[in-house]
Amino acid sequence: MRRAWNSIMVGSLALVAACGTQQPAPEPAATAVSRPKPAATAPGPSSLSNSAYKVEWGEFTVPSMGAGKTALAHLGLKNASPVAWPSGVGTTGMLYTVRLTHRWLKVVPNGEPREAVGYLGVRSEVPALQPGESATVEVGLTAPAKRGRYIVEFELLNEGVATFSGMGSTTKRVEVKVGP
Length: 180
Hints:
By secondary structure, this protein is mainly β. It has a single domain, classed as Immunoglobulins (Immunoglobulin-like). It is built from 1 helix and 10 strands. The protein has one helix at residues 2-19, and strands at 55-61, 65-66, 70-79, 98-107, 113-116, 123-125, 134-142, 148-158, 162-163, 172-179. The longest helix has 18 residues, at 2-19.
């Protein structure tokens, strides 16, 4: 019987070699296996719990802004949560770090900031802050290309996870007059 099997295999290999193509071996049929669900895991050391998304905004200083010009501003903030915030300062990774971003809103004639001029995109590093600690963050701002009254809205985010305002915290809005 073994000799017959070997003959069949040799014949099959010769046929495959003659055709120049080899058929892949059939995949084994899938077998359903019942396994218990894995236990829920605690957040990793870089993840923030829901209670971490609390900020108290401090003073904002910015020099006069010219249309389309860039200036350095400074914004104070405080970790008002019971959880330490991780920082990406000095690392190559950003995921899960707390960072500051901003966007510009055009003030329309009735005084309301409604028209978004930019989107959350430019990030500024926030140092690691323990609960109750404060810091002043340096922010590079590039003013909109047109003169006028604007609101710059600051937002903290847990990079790759959520914005702080999306988790119930506040943003910081400051009116800035953009000149020539």
